[in-house]
Write a sequence for this structure.
């Protein structure tokens, strides 16, 4: 049996290494595809050897349990396979939130099994004085409970994030004085966590998980839509952490390493994203954009100047340089393919076309890059904010398609704006700005955008796909 | 079994590793990488299998079943979605000579 144990632990080690190497390769566009395949191989290896773990094979209900494992993998994996293959690129963020929530839920339920088992075993003791912590040891108990609360919050929070992004949940308020209630729920949850540690009862465990579920919902509901990328990234990091902690509980090195790597990588990513929006992570949770301050933003307005697609097409066809700024509106309209077609037409006419991506454009960091890549735009035409901002002054036309807050100049000039301090794309500095927009409303944050009223800005009203189509037609007509 | 200080070392080293991986990533890969790291914590499936594998009562079996179901969803969904996203980066070595 010694060699079997060695083989299993060795396989976990190899899996953990493949995860790290895979993630490393995913950090460069050239090797990224190989990276996911390596990580996938690690996952298959780790899953297969787990069927051979001695504790599982020698368990009293080995046959039933193994059948249950296979059935559960078939159902859960099958569901995820089908939904993952089917989901449109634009809906990717909410699916990632969903799968991430499932991971958090899995970590939490592992903790639940361990705690229930310890409770049952502790109750068998005739003196009745054995606690869960006595059974499991204090380090294991504490990490099991920590992983449980983090995993549960990530589970219910991710489901709310999914529902919000999927348009199934639009409200931002549940209860009055939500923050105070959240704090009370959090304190009570921690109280039950302490009770679990010092008792061998079922009741605190049930109350603990119930409250943690509620807490995840309460925390996520008030978060504004514009902050969703930060939240998904944060829950991703939290799930990683929960997995790492439960890995310690089970004594599984692969889980510890993979979980903590994701936990720290995800925390850094969350921080980078929040910084790009000039918001701290706590700010995201405790102050929704669009409430309070936004309402105070005065309606300093002028006239929006409309432009027809023919004129816009001519403007672009005879430009020397066009910079396209995509936003969530492009994703919703599925306009990326048409935009790429337009880009190719302009290229043929000798117009230099560049894409400018704000770090938080869309619903996730890099969301726009993924969509443009889907349409076939080579990634060397795509520029980050820092690399392109100086270039706007040499640009004939900046085409803003479905973006709003990321080009809002009030982020620079108006200290009372809720966006104030957020770095923006300096579209306003180009010779002409054409904004493709469905209606006259404000952006996701609900903040008025002075760019739309600027002298050099023209509005092209309409759905992104339709507008792009019309631009293609008008450029083609020029021969 | 990994215990005490040894676990602390693993926590620390894994933490630094994750930090290092992310700190040099271009924005273009942030979504695929978030998706990829989402897949990697799908390793929770292994723990869930273990928890269900050693379950002894119907309640434990039920909760363990849910754990495996969710873990498998995380692993499979994370893989499919990441793979689909990265699939799109394949034809991008065409240089356009922009600058």
């Amino acid at each position: 049996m010694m060699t079997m144990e060695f083989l299993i632990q060795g396989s976990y080690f190899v899996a953990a290494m493949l995860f790290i190497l895979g993630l490393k390769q995913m950090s460069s566009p050239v090797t990224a595809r190989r990276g996911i395949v390596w990580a996938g191989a690690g996952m298959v290896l780790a899953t297969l050897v787990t069927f051979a773990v001695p504790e599982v094979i020698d368990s009293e209900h080995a046959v039933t349990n193994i059948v249950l494992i296979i059935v559960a993998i078939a159902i859960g994996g099958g569901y995820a396979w089908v939904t993952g293959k089917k989901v449109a690129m634009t809906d990717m963020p909410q699916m990632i939130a969903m799968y991430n929530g499932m991971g958090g839920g899995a970590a939490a339920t592992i903790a639940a099994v361990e705690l229930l088992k310890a409770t049952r075993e502790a109750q068998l003791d005739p003196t009745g004085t054995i606690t869960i912590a006595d059974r499991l040891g204090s380090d294991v108990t504490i990490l099991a409970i920590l992983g449980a609360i983090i995993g549960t919050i990530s589970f219910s929070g991710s489901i709310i994030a999914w529902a919000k992004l999927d348009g199934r949940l639009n409200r931002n308020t549940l209860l009055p004085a939500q923050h105070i209630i959240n704090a009370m729920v959090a304190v009570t949850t921690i109280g039950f966590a302490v009770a679990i540690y010092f008792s061998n009862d079922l009741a605190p465990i049930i109350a603990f998980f119930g409250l943690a579920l509620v807490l995840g919902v309460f925390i996520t509901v008030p978060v504004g839509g514009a902050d969703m990328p930060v939240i998904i990234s944060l829950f991703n990091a939290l799930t990683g952490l929960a997995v790492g902690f439960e890995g310690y509980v089970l004594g599984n090195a692969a889980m510890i390493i993979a979980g903590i790597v994701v936990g720290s990588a995800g925390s850094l990513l969350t921080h980078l994203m929040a910084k790009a929006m000039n918001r701290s992570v706590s700010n995201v949770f405790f102050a929704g954009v669009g409430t309070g301050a936004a309402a105070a933003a005065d309606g300093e307005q002028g006239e929006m100047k409309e432009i027809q697609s023919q004129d816009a097409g001519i403007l672009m066809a005879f430009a020397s340089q066009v910079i396209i700024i995509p936003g969530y509106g492009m994703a919703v309209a599925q306009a990326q393919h048409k935009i790429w077609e337009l880009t190719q037409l302009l290229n043929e006419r000798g117009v230099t076309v560049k894409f400018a991506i704000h770090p938080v454009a869309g619903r996730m960091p890099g969301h726009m890059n993924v969509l443009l890549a889907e349409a076939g735009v080579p990634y060397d035409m795509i520029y980050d904010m820092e690399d392109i901002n100086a270039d706007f002054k040499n640009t004939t036309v900046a085409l803003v398609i479905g973006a709003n807050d990321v080009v809002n100049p009030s982020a620079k000039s108006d200290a009372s704006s809720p966006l104030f301090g957020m770095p923006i794309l300096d579209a306003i500095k180009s010779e002409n700005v054409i904004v493709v927009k469905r209606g006259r409303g404000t952006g996701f944050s609900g903040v008025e955008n002075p760019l739309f009223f600027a002298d050099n800005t023209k509005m092209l009203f309409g759905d992104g796909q339709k507008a792009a189509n019309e631009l293609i037609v008008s450029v083609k007509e020029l021969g | 079994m990994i215990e005490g200080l040894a676990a602390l070392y693993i926590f620390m080293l894994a933490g630094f590793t994750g930090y290092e991986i992310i700190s040099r990533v271009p924005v273009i890969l942030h979504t695929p990488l978030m998706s990829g790291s989402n897949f990697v914590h799908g390793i929770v499936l292994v723990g869930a299998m273990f928890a269900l594998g050693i379950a002894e009562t119907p309640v434990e079996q039920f909760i363990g079943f849910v754990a495996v179901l969710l873990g498998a969803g995380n692993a499979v969904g994370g893989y499919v979605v990441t793979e689909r996203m990265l699939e799109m980066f394949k034809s991008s070595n065409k240089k356009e000579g922009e600058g």
Summary: The longest strand of chain A covers residues 321-326. Chain A touches chain B through 122 residues (CB under 8 Å).
